[in-house]
Design a protein that fits this description.
Blueprint (H helix, E strand, L loop, with lengths): L2 E6 L3 E7 L5 E8 L4 H10 L5 E6 L10 E2 L2 H8 L9 H14 L4 E6 L9 H4 L5 H7 L8 H15 L7 E7 L3 E7 L2 E5 L20 H11 L3 H10 L2 H6 L5 H9 L3 H24 L5 E5 H6 L1 H9 L10 H4 L9 E2 L8 E4 L4 H14 L1
Helix pairs in contact: 6-15, 10-11, 11-13
Length: 365
């Protein structure tokens, strides 16, 4: 069964055709707003398709499994777009386009929130007035679940141990970034919350901020809420602190050249990352492996090294030479320091395989 996987990120649209043996048989990366002709040309050149799977970031409280796309489901997901404004709207626009263009092909939404759907209440519930929780469904949803799920399963295979026996901290570090505490194959805590703004410092997103700051900016300074929202999503994070770039590699280079704001941006980024890895470990009362994935997690050895250097007290350490070896860029790699009791792994993000796996399961069910 061949599945076209459509992965709409904040900066790119990735198209992958996954064949019956989980090999990617066609692949293309397009801009954040691809034109219809480019998508049609890709589909026309691809092998015959049995189904299409769409990555949808926010599925809300209802969607814990892949959902067959139709007008009703799309309307439900439209209502969640303000909670994931960088991802849901463009993903749904492209989904509608493909449904219109290829009505005979079954199409499913696979949700980043689904992996975290069964967070323990202690991790999911905010300390807010209960009527807000009960009436509005406010809770911590978590995101990047497709990536966390794949990284967990792949880590278990690399370690030669059943996933059910492992405690993993999976670190999805890209333009967006989140961690998950995965115990016995289930997410029991994560750094993102009701929206993808909570948690780690990201490329242009702020991560966690004292809500009192935002209230003060609106009520005392007089900023419009839409201006605050735009700043939190598009002008914060690494870009906001450094003033150099949202790209971690460019910020690292600027910091190495003595740019003081870039140095500060990296210090804040690593401090928050290290702190949250320790927090995920505490949520599981220990850890067997830390797994780095996604663009920064896979391709920024400086970030992996800096994060783990401060976690030796947890048994976490990185082999410096293996961490910087070219093979890390090509293969899933174990970069654990000699003698360290906790494994450190680099796993290439393969959300397309996780989505194809879920689509096939939905079709079989």
């Amino acid at each position: 069964m061949s599945v076209l996987v459509v992965n709409v990120g904040s900066r790119t649209v990735k198209l992958r055709v996954v064949g019956p043996d989980d090999r990617v048989v066609a692949s293309e990366d397009l801009g954040a707003e691809p034109d219809d002709a480019a998508v049609d040309a890709f589909v026309a050149a691809a092998p015959p398709l049995d189904a299409i799977g769409h990555r949808v970031v926010h599925g809300g409280a209802r969607h814990h499994l892949p959902a067959r796309l139709d007008d009703e489901v799309l309307a439900e997901l439209d209502a969640l777009s303000t909670l994931a404004p960088l991802h849901n709207p463009p993903a749904l626009r492209l989904a509608r386009r493909l449904l219109e263009r290829y009505p005979a092909i079954r199409q499913y939404a696979c949700f980043d929130t689904a992996f975290h759907a069964y967070l323990p209440d202690a991790a999911a519930v905010y300390a807010l007035p209960w009527e807000w929780t009960a009436t509005h469904g406010i809770r911590r949803f978590g995101f990047h679940g497709l990536s966390h799920a794949w990284a967990s399963r792949r880590a278990a295979a690399m370690l030669g141990r059943p996933l059910e026996d492992l405690r993993l901290v999976t670190c999805h570090l890209g333009g967006g970034a989140s961690l998950a505490a995965v115990a016995s194959g289930r997410s029991i805590d994560t750094t993102m919350g009701f929206t993808p703004l909570e948690g780690l410092v990201m490329a242009t997103r702020s991560g966690s901020v004292d809500p009192g700051v935002l209230l003060w900016l609106i009520t005392d300074v007089g900023l419009d809420p839409s201006e605050v929202a735009d700043a939190l999503h598009h002008r914060s994070g690494l870009l906001g602190i450094s003033g150099v770039s949202a790209d971690v590699h460019e910020v690292v280079e600027a910091a190495a050249g003595g740019d003081t704001r870039a140095e500060l941006a990296m210090a804040v980024y690593v401090h928050r990352l290290r702190r949250e890895i320790a927090g995920m470990t505490a949520a599981m009362s220990g850890v067997d492996a830390v797994v780095f994935t996604a663009g920064v997690g896979e391709h920024a050895p400086e970030i992996r090294q800096a994060a783990c250097d401060g976690l030796g007290y947890l048994g976490i350490g990185v082999d410096r030479e293996r961490n910087r070896a070219p093979a890390v860029h090509e293969h899933d790699t174990d970069i654990t320091a000699p003698g360290a009791p906790v494994s450190v792994l680099v796993v290439h993000a393969r959300e397309e395989l996780e989505i194809a796996h879920q689509v096939r399961a939905a079709l079989a069910g």
